[in-house]
Amino acid sequence: MKSGDHSIDFPQKVNQYVQLNSTPVTSVSQLSDVQSTDWAFQALQSLVERYSCIAGYPDGSFKGSRAMTRFEFATALNDCLDRINQRITADITDGVVKEDLATLQKLQEEFKTELTTLQGRVDIVEARTEQLEKQQFSATTKLNGQVIFAAVDAFGDASRSGDEDNSNLTFSSRIRLNFDTSFTGKDQLRIRLQASNIINPNAPGNEARVAFQSGSDTTNNVALSKLQYRFPLNEQVSILAATGFNTYFDDGDVINPLQSDVNATISRFGRYNAIYRLGGDTGVIVTYKPNRNIKAEAMYLAKNANNPGNGLFNSGYGALGQIVFYPNSEDPVTKIAFTYVNAYNEDGLGHNTGSLPSNLGGRKVSSNSYGIETNVKINSGFQVGGWVGYTSARALTGEVKGDADIWNWAVTLAFPDLGKQGNLGGIIIGMQPRLTNTSAPLAGLPRRDPDTGFHIEGFYRYKINDNISITPGLLWLTAPNHNSQNGDIFLGVIRTTFEI
């Protein structure tokens, strides 16, 4: 460096690195541990006021009594060189003292080796950062998992004829491991492995099916239970492609704060409107959200997508269209949805959410279903919601072809943070899918469910810590399978959930 020269050769990138790890100082009074009586006060004041090339630590201190290495001094020197270079470039020559330039020239020669070494280190870091940015496809996979242990018992008379409780206390378990990978920071690839050993209690119509029973395997065999990839097409449209035996339409927005089979409802019916179960297990979900007040979802799920004889479009399927409205754009919890599902099933229509109705079992059935779902946040500790679902089904095979009407409804009460933050209380009162009329019964069977049974459920999730929660719950089924000849059933569940 020469006095009066308008180009000073020193590493600019070192200074950028230093600035990221220090706090700029515009007045020496900003340094909390520098006093006016200190021997170096005037020197520091001159450097700050003349060249602004002194930086403090993030806590506002200077730490002048600490020993300094040659590399640390080189970085500080580099900062001052950069400040002076800026003044020379701007032709502020009167602000640069000739004697100071001479001193800096000597210092630059003395610390030439350290400055060159620092430049090399910064260049290496920048090269590695640039390489990592280019290799974003080599994403990091994160693991999260759930373990459920549950004691389940159904008790009560199986029928009005006097039969006693025919279901014993059972112990169930389910393990899930989710491997989540993102390639762009906005997308997600999920691979889920699952093993379970859950058998539902004995109950007419299988109406006592528990929420966390998913899939048919009950031998703790590990299986790939879900494979899905979610990615944004643009700021308003996102796409989810998925396959897995428990997909259905529950990857969409079902408008129920008590949906979770891990930390909320204890029953399968309590998760959402039964019309969401009319889909298959493989397909695509497209979500379009033009603004914060409205969202549209379109979904198609096939049942035999991996069968060459059927494929995606020549077997059972479900196609759903849904519009969700948010009255208050600042409140994502309060919303109302209008849902339509067109479905085709080759093995009947499961209107009891777990079994085939006898009047339609074994037939090819097409259906159109309509639903209204809502949830309203009353205050921070109370939400009220529910749904109504109607299915118009047509039997396409059998001796007598015809139509059937099926209804289900529920009212949900949610109590977030009940007792303490993280807890959840829930009440669900409703009617599981009921066959109200059919023009195509099987021989000797009624055209409709003879009575109306009700589903009454309550649970309380108690959060022990961030990883463990316990949920006791009780379900009361009146006239199970919508037949008063079946005695009331009570289902008790104590579910313990571990999450990592």
UniProtKB/TrEMBL annotation:
Residue ranges of every copy of the SLH domain listed in the record: 27-91
Superkingdom to which the source organism belongs: Bacteria
GO cellular component, one term: membrane
A Pfam family assignment: OprB
Name of the featured protein: Carbohydrate porin
Annotated family: Belongs to the OprB family.
GO MF assignments: porin activity
Protein source organism: Atlanticothrix silvestris CENA357
GO biological process, alphabetically ordered: carbohydrate transport
